[in-house]
Input
Amino acid sequence: MEKSLNTAGISTCRTGEEKYVYFNLPPHLRRRGRCCQYDYRTEDGELFSCVAPTLDKCREKRDRWLQDGAGKRP
Output
């Protein structure tokens, strides 16, 4: 999968698309293991981004965000 950030740290996610990447947490953190960094950009161009243990959890967070009315311009 293509990287989700460009060299300036800006999301490369296009409108209506999602991007994700799994990464390992550094050992010095209390919680070790693999996490998913997730980006989703609405058709209006608003970006949702989160980190969760799995892609499914990220999508659940995105769905709650959309249900709460985020991602919709007035």
